[in-house]
Amino acid sequence: MNAHAQTSADPGRAHSLRLAVLLATYMQSANLPLPNAVLRLIQGTLSMTDDQAGWIFTAYLAASAITLPIAQWLAGRLGLKLVYQAALAVFVLGLLLATVATTPLQFIAARIIQGLASGVLAPLSMAIAMETLAPEKRMKFGATWTAIVLLGIVSGPSIGGWIAEHFDWRPIFYISLPLSAYIFLVVALLLAEKKPEEAPSFDFFGFGSFTLALIGLQMLLDRGERLDWFDSPEIRIEALACGLGLYLLMVHVLTSKTHFLNKRLFRDRNFVLSTLIFFAVGFVLLSTMALTSPMLDEILGYPPDTTGALTIPRGIGLVGAFVLMGWVPERFDRRLFVAAGVALVIFANGLMLDYSPLMDWSPVAVAGAIQGIGIGLLMPALTKVAFSTLDPALRAEGTGLFNLSRVYGSTLGVAIVQIFFFNNTQAMHLALAANVTPYRAAAHGGTASMSLPALEGLNHMITHQAAFIAVIGQFKILLVAMLVVSPLVVFLRKPIPAN
C-alpha cells in the first residue's frame, strides 16, 4: 500500500502529516531572515565585521541552493522518511551550533549547516504533503505551501526582533527546537517509508559543475571586498572555479542527452521569461529586508522589536495579496497581474529612494506594504504564466529550476548590495570628511583644535550619514533590477486556462 492510500484511509493521519510538514516549511523559511533585526547584537557579541554580517544570509541561501536539486534523488535512494528525519536532525544541529558560537566563522558555519538541511526539507516537505492529497487537490495546496514559505520569510525578522529585545539574540534559535521535535515525532509515527521500485538516476557531472560555479561565485562575492578583489590569489582561484564550473555546465547541457537542466525547458518562452522575472523577485525581496533592518537598527537606532515589527506591513501585504489571488477567476488574464505586480514593486522601491534620516517609521511601513502587495500579486500570477504552457512531463524539473531561480536571486542580491554598500559607505565617508577641516571650523566660529571625544562624535555622525546615503544607493540598484526585467512582461504569451 502506498503513502497516499494509507493516508486516504485515515484522514486524521493525513491532516497531522500536512500540518507537520507545513510547520517545517515555515520553520526553515523563517530561519533565513530570523537574525535580520538583531544584526547589531550578533555583531557586537561575536566581534563580526560589517562585511561578515552579509554572510549570515548568503551562507544559508547558498547552502540551500546546493542541496535543493539533490533532495529528491537522496529520498529516492535512501528513503523519503529517513532523509527527511536526517535533514531535521542536521537542521537542529545547526540551530544549536548557532547558539553556542563565539566567533564569526563558527556562526557562519552553523548557518551553512542550517542552509544545507533547509534545501532538503523544503522540497521533501512538499513531496510528503502531496502524497497525502488526492491529485485534484494538489494544485490548490501548492499555493498554500508557497504562502507558508512567504509568511516565514516576512515574519522571521519580527519574531527575532521581539525575542532579542526581551531576552537575547541567542534564544531566537531556540524556538525552532520544540517545533523540530514535534515534526520529527509526527513523521516517525505517521509516515510510512517509501522507496521507488527503481533507484532514480541523477546527473552528478552537471550537478557538480553547477555547484562548483555557485560556490566559486559566492565566495568571490563574499570575500572579494575583504581581500581587495583580484589582487588576491584566493579571489583569482575562486573566479577561475566559477568560470570553469559554468563552462563545464554549458558544454554538458549542450552535448549530453540527459543532464542536470533539461534543454526542453528553455524552449518554452513563458517559462524562460517567468524564471528570469522570478529571479529578479528573489533579488529584490530579501535584499530589501537585508538593507532595511540594518538601516533602522544600526543607523537610525531603532530597538530590535521595532525593527522587526516594521517587516509586518510587508508580510500582511504580501500574504494578503497572495491569498486573494487564489480567488481570482480563471478567465482573467494573469499577465495583467504580473504587470501590476511589477509596477507596484517598482513604485515601492522608488518610494524607498526618498527615505531620510529625519523620517519616522511610516514611510518604511508604507513602502514595505506596497512592495509586499506587488510581490503577492506577482508570484502566483507568474507561476501560472510559467507553467500553463509548459509540457506537463517537464513540470517537476521546471518547478525545481523555477524555485531555485528565486533562491539564487536572493543569494546574489544580498551579496551584491552588501558589496556596493561597503564601497559606497567608504566613498561617501571620504567625500564628507574631506569638507571637514580646521579652516572651515574656524570660519564658522569654531576652533582649529578639537578634543578627542568631539572628533569621535564628528566621525560617528559622518559615518552614519555616509552609511545612510549608501543604503539609498542600494535601493536604487534594486529598483534598476526590476526595471530591467519589466519589459519581459510584454513578451509573455497568454496562459492556457486550466481544464
Automatic annotation (TrEMBL):
<keyword id="KW-0472">Membrane</keyword>
<feature type="transmembrane region" description="Helical">
    <location>
        <begin position="311"/>
        <end position="329"/>
    </location>
</feature>
<keyword id="KW-0813">Transport</keyword>
<feature type="transmembrane region" description="Helical">
    <location>
        <begin position="466"/>
        <end position="492"/>
    </location>
</feature>
<dbReference type="InterPro" id="IPR036259">
    <property type="entry name" value="MFS_trans_sf"/>
</dbReference>
<feature type="transmembrane region" description="Helical">
    <location>
        <begin position="336"/>
        <end position="355"/>
    </location>
</feature>
<dbReference type="Pfam" id="PF07690">
    <property type="entry name" value="MFS_1"/>
</dbReference>
<feature type="transmembrane region" description="Helical">
    <location>
        <begin position="108"/>
        <end position="129"/>
    </location>
</feature>
<protein>
    <submittedName>
        <fullName>MFS transporter</fullName>
    </submittedName>
</protein>
<feature type="domain" description="Major facilitator superfamily (MFS) profile">
    <location>
        <begin position="17"/>
        <end position="498"/>
    </location>
</feature>
<feature type="transmembrane region" description="Helical">
    <location>
        <begin position="55"/>
        <end position="75"/>
    </location>
</feature>
<feature type="transmembrane region" description="Helical">
    <location>
        <begin position="82"/>
        <end position="102"/>
    </location>
</feature>
<feature type="transmembrane region" description="Helical">
    <location>
        <begin position="172"/>
        <end position="192"/>
    </location>
</feature>
<dbReference type="InterPro" id="IPR011701">
    <property type="entry name" value="MFS"/>
</dbReference>
<dbReference type="InterPro" id="IPR004638">
    <property type="entry name" value="EmrB-like"/>
</dbReference>
<feature type="transmembrane region" description="Helical">
    <location>
        <begin position="141"/>
        <end position="160"/>
    </location>
</feature>
<dbReference type="InterPro" id="IPR020846">
    <property type="entry name" value="MFS_dom"/>
</dbReference>
<dbReference type="InterPro" id="IPR005829">
    <property type="entry name" value="Sugar_transporter_CS"/>
</dbReference>
<feature type="transmembrane region" description="Helical">
    <location>
        <begin position="361"/>
        <end position="382"/>
    </location>
</feature>
<feature type="transmembrane region" description="Helical">
    <location>
        <begin position="233"/>
        <end position="250"/>
    </location>
</feature>
<keyword id="KW-1003">Cell membrane</keyword>
<keyword id="KW-0812">Transmembrane</keyword>
<feature type="transmembrane region" description="Helical">
    <location>
        <begin position="271"/>
        <end position="291"/>
    </location>
</feature>
<feature type="transmembrane region" description="Helical">
    <location>
        <begin position="403"/>
        <end position="422"/>
    </location>
</feature>
<feature type="transmembrane region" description="Helical">
    <location>
        <begin position="204"/>
        <end position="221"/>
    </location>
</feature>
<keyword id="KW-1133">Transmembrane helix</keyword>
